[in-house]
Amino acid sequence: MKKSVVSFFLAVLLSVSLLGVAYAETQTTESKIISFTDISGHWAEAAINKAVKAGYVGGYPDGTFKPDQEVSRAEFTKMLTTALGLKSVSGASGAWYQEAVNAATEAGIYAGDFKSGTWDTKMPRKEMMLLSVRAGITGYKQDYDMNRNLYEGAKAGLIMGTSPGNIDPDGTTTRAQAVVVIERVLAVKRGETLPSDKYAVGAAEILWHKTNILTMLPQYFGNPMRKANNEYIEFRDDLMQSVSDNGKIACSVTKLVAVDLDDPNDPNRGLVTSDDFRWYSNNQIYKLKGASGSYAVFTTVDIKFSENHGTNFVTPCSTTIYNSNWKDAKLNATDTSNLNRDYAFFPWDPEYNKLMYGIRTDIKSGTITYTSGQLIPKQPNVSSKEFVIKFSGNLRNEGVKQIYSSTLK
Q1: Where does the signal peptide begin and end (predicted)?
Q2: Nearest Cα to Cα of residue 76 among 167, 5, 203, 178
Q3: What is the pLDDT of residue 73?
Q4: Does residue 123 contact residue 73 with C-beta atoms inside 8 Å?
Q5: CA distance between the termini of the chain
Q6: Which of 158, 296, 360, 375 has the lowest CB atom count within 10 Å?
Q7: pTM
């Protein structure tokens, strides 16, 4: 009898030990531990406890949760599909995570998107958001790329920035981040509207299509023009490039960034540098530094020169926010807090004491970066005319391209 009891005890002990190993490897076993030793005061404590109670994630046998431990693609996919209650119709076979992958694929959450690495690869934040957007947001399109999904996720409040204006798309995903995002996915699916991080949304938008105007200027661009089938006409960042007639000079817009001059925490405020930019009105020139009461919209371009380009002066390509009512208004503002229309600003050339509309250069080959822009009012004047973003190549006679357009709501 004593031998049988000992044998039974050893068998139970072995089973528990093996269960702990499997749990640590797959993170699929439901844990009954709620008071983990390492989450008190953690920013994700509430979400972790909620997720554990829901049963789609657990802790470790030593009583820890390890909130800052990175998760793999497989672990996140397993958590997400379990939280959503998804089951694979084809069942489970192969690796421990295969049923979760099958379920995600059948639900349209995963579409063979991971072209490199394995399911054991640590999951970048942009991949986490790819699956999360498909799982939680209605109306997404399967052909949205990683950056578009990141933007849609940030706009819906599924993901926040890691610091002001930094969404860290290639950063790895921790267990805490994973459960917080999954809890937000579940909230969105319940019909809740979540708060979003405006700076993160703007950063994601720049990654998506080189601009943050949809985030920063909804009062101007919140009612975009539509196609015949009623779909929105997308922002055409692919058109913001030009090549000279001889093919030796290429100019492309790398960023079109709106900065709120009244927001000291605007993550792009560093573009408003000391005495580098000036704007003009009624034959007077004013410093951009210290301006307030308006938006500064910066266009940054890269101009690439090849050997034997044959010029020492270039007018850079540019973007412009155009409105015909603005065009007809006089350039008479003396204060940026009371603008009646748009006002252009350019780099200031201290050597010649004038605005730099173009670039003089003796460069033989290489790349020059140039920035200029517009000041625009905080609120648009009442106008029935479109607000249009136009691109001017300036390197050849190719006309002006329309990048985006919207009417006031």
Answers
A1: 1-24
A2: 178
A3: 97
A4: yes
A5: 84
A6: 360
A7: 0.86
Give the integer Cα–Cα distance in Å for 161 and 289: 28
Helical packing angle, 175-189 and 45-54, nearest 10°: 70
Residue 99 scores a pLDDT above 70 = yes
CA distances from 242 to 227, 364, 390, 399 (A): 26, 19, 13, 11
Which of 298, 237, 235, 301 shows the shortest CA–CA distance to 268?
A: 298
Provide the 3-class DSSP secondary structure of residue 314: strand
- Cα dihedral 146, 151, 156, 161 sign: positive
Whether the Cβ atoms of residue 383 and residue 220 lie closer than 8 Å to each other: no
**pLDDT tens, position by position, 346-398:** 999 988 899 999 998 889 999 999 999 999 999 887 778 899 999 999 777 77
- CA-wise closest residue to 83 among 180, 162, 198, 168: 180
Q: 286-293: list long-range contacts, CB under 8 Å, 24+ apart.
A: 286/334, 286/336, 288/345, 288/375, 291/261, 291/336, 291/375, 292/261, 292/262, 292/336, 292/337, 293/261, 293/262, 293/335, 293/336, 293/337, 293/338, 293/339, 293/378
Q: Is 193 left (phi over 0), alpha (psi -120 to 50) or beta?
A: beta
